[in-house]
Amino acid sequence: MPFITFAWTTPALLAGAKTVVRQPWSERKAKQFRSGTLATAYDRAPYLGGRPVAVIRLTQDPVRQPLAEMTDGDYETEGWHWLYEHRDQLPGWIRASDFSHEAFDAWRARAGSVWVLHFELVAVVSTGNQAVEAEGMAVIPAVPTARAA
Q: Which domains does the chain have, with CATH numbers?
C-alpha cells in the first residue's frame, strides 16, 4: 500500500478535520495514486522513523495545482483552522500562529505547484488515544515497524 506523510497536520487528520493534502511530488510519484486508492498515513516519513497513524482513501484523482489557486475553503480542508483552534494538539515548538489565516495566505502566495489529493479517513491506527478511537472510526491495531522491532 502506498503511503503519504502528514507531519505537523497529523492531529487534524486524526480528528477528521483534514480531507486534503498537498505534496511536492514528481509526476511519477503522483501516478501511484488514483481515486479509490487506499494509502497508509504516516506522521512522518517511514525512513525517518515515522509511524503509521491511519488509512485513507482518495476520493479524486490527484491534480497539479499552483499554490496561488488555493481558496479560503482550503484553509479548512487542509486542517489549518482546526490546528489553529486546537493548539494543545501541537508539539511545543509549533505555534498556533503557524496555522493562522495569515500563515496560510503566505503559503498560497509562494510560487510553485503541488499535487492536491482529496481523501477520506478510513481507519485510525490504535494509539491508545480514546478520544480519537471513540469517534466511531474503524480502528486497526498498531503493528511494530521493522525499525521499532
A: 3-140 (3.10.400)
